[in-house]
Design goal:
Helix content is 23%, strand content 61%. By secondary structure, it is α+β, with helices and mostly antiparallel strands.
Amino acid sequence: MSVAKITEITATSKKSFDDAVQNGIKRASKTLKNITSAWIADQSVSVKNGKIDRYEVRMKVTFILK
């Protein structure tokens, strides 16, 4: 039997939402082992001078406990 835990993280990127997700998973993988999935709970952008400056995602990451 496996036991899973979910943690919420926020990640950003200057390029895209997809890149923000990749950055978040990459960073989470440094401290969380056995990540199995991520659910995108929210997305937003920061705007400067009429242009998108930063993409931000809030995601729930699921990982299996040993």
